[in-house]
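Module 6 notes. Inverse folding takes a fixed backbone as the condition and produces residue identities as the prediction. Think of it as a translation problem where the source language is geometry and the target language is the twenty amino acids. Below is one complete input and output pair. Work through it position by position during the lab.
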């Protein structure tokens, strides 16, 4: 199939982009990497009046450090997170996260902001941003506002943005010391995850946990933090002995989405296995060399 007819606008600045969004409202769709929008257009699942191509707004393609935070422009291509020296030094967790996204051509085209704004519940970046306590800078006619990642994702493919607003920057606090793990189960390498888990644990001077985030993805209508498991980790500490208990608590009240790919019960089993493995990855990292990352994994079989 081919898209329904639409007007095409290619602004070269953020101001022009916001003016266009204000003029067209719900009838406009932003085009960045096109990895999600183009299939929807071709299948006529969305039929906007105008496509706003923001690829010429090069001011939104950057990474930089701002005090105790790393800032990533919304138009930064995903592959850059694998190679950027600043990301590697201050947020190495993002490197194994990005390696799980599709295949290299997808990561070269897809943008950080595009993945986050699309908000697919099985995508890796939204879950990772929740685990990293990121905030998103949103620009609109009334100015800019900062939205925590936990509040940004409000439902299936739905975020806290008005039609005349645009995600322009991701701000991620840089932990002093942290260990992590990310695991997902996909039927084929590069497919969307049927279930996944991201775990980030902040460490104090004596390697005790000072903060923990455990986030499930691919199992609900949005990335799902599990406070009960986080509290258990904080109470008992990070250890291999706790991995199975943490996994059990993480899914004890989980009502998984079911579809043609997996039943609710199967997804729940996968989520439990992925939490356990992500926790064990964080434990291994702490034992080997706290604060230094290692590659993530995509599993072929659940434990």
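Target side of the pair, the amino acids:
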């Amino acid at each position: 199939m081919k898209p329904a007819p639409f007007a095409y606008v290619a602004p070269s600045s953020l101001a022009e982009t916001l003016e266009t969004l204000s003029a067209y409202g719900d009838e406009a769709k932003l085009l960045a990497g096109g990895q999600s929008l183009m299939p929807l257009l071709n299948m006529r699942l969305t039929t906007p009046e105008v496509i706003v191509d923001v690829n010429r707004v090069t001011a939104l393609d950057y990474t930089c450090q701002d005090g105790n935070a790393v800032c990533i422009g919304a138009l930064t291509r995903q592959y850059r997170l694998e190679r950027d020296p600043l990301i590697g030094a201050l947020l190495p967790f993002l490197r194994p996260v990005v390696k799980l996204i599709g295949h290299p051509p997808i990561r070269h085209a897809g943008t950080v902001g595009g993945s986050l704004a699309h908000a697919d519940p099985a995508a890796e970046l939204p879950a990772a941003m929740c685990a990293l306590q990121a905030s998103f800078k949103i620009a609109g006619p009334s100015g800019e506002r900062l939205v925590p990642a936990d509040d940004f994702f409000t439902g299936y493919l739905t975020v806290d943005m008005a039609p005349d607003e645009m995600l322009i920057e991701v701000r991620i606090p840089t932990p002093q010391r942290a260990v992590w793990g990310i695991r997902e189960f996909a039927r084929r390498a590069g497919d969307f995850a049927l279930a996944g888990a991201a775990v980030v644990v902040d460490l104090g001077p004596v390697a005790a946990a000072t903060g923990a985030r455990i986030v499930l993805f691919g199992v609900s209508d949005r990335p799902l933090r599990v406070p009960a498991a986080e509290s258990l980790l904080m109470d008992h500490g990070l250890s291999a002995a706790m991995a199975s208990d943490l996994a059990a608590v993480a899914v004890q009240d989980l009502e998984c989405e079911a579809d043609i790919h997996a039943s609710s019960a199967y997804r729940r089993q996968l989520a439990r296995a992925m939490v356990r493995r992500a926790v064990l990855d964080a434990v291994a990292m702490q034992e080997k060399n706290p604060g230094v990352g290692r590659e993530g994994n995509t599993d072929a079989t659940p434990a």
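Reference fact for the lab report: The domain at 7-53 is CATH 3.30.43.10 (Uridine Diphospho-n-acetylenolpyruvylglucosamine Reductase; domain 2).
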